[in-house]
Amino acid sequence: VKINSVEFIKSSDGIKDCPMDGFPEVAFVGRSNVGKSSLVNLLMERKSLALVSKKPGKTQLINHFLVNKRWYLVDLPGYGFASAPKTLCVKWNEFTKDYFLKRKTLVMVVQLIDSSIPVQQIDIDCATWLKQHNIPSTLAFTKCDRKKKKRKTGGKHPVDNVVEFLQEMRLVTTQTYPWILTSCVTGQGRDELMMHIEEFRNY
Ligand code: GDP
């Protein structure tokens, strides 16, 4: 899938402020440091699209990028900052859930999961919430090229973490859902994810 153009349109601090031109949108969400900037740049064949500020405590914004003048790639604030105060987590929840529940042009969410670290409860919670609310979502596992860290206690191969995550999800939901293994180092999953987005874009 060729990317002819990517234009930054605007940052919004709530859904009332988001673009109103009706293009379908695909939103990207995940923990801070999950590899979102890297994956978005891989998808868009760009070196450095500026994504939402990554540091906790800054204003949380929704960023809209118009791709090929046909659909929006939406960058949402990251969740799960280790150092973030509880109030910030609550704010993330209100802000992002409002967007997920009320944004009519949202066609799909891509939830990024870091496959190089053990399964995180916050990722399970986010995926479960999306499913419970029937929001079409795809899991994109990032950093799948990383090798098992033998010396680190509990270090597992990325694929083991992916399997564990999927197993945990089956315990909490009976629905099936698409998932894709990706790596910005090898380019794995890039075309698959783009094709998947292209299918959804038309809904
Ligand atoms: P963001 O905070 O979610 O936007 O994450 P970044 O894209 O900035 O990536 C966080 C860190 O993970 C950086 O050090 C990246 O180099 C690294 N990273 C991201 N994607 C990959 C990947 O596919 N493979 C490997 N090995 N490292 C990655």
TrEMBL record:
It comes from the Eukaryota. Belongs to the TRAFAC class TrmE-Era-EngA-EngB-Septin-like GTPase superfamily. EngB GTPase family. Keywords: Cell cycle, Cell division, GTP-binding, Magnesium, Metal-binding, Nucleotide-binding, Septation. This is EngB-type G domain-containing protein. Its cofactor is Mg(2+). The chain holds residues 39 to 241 of 244 of the full protein. GO terms for molecular function: GTP binding; metal ion binding. One of its GO terms (biological process) is cell division. Residues 22-203 form the EngB-type G domain.
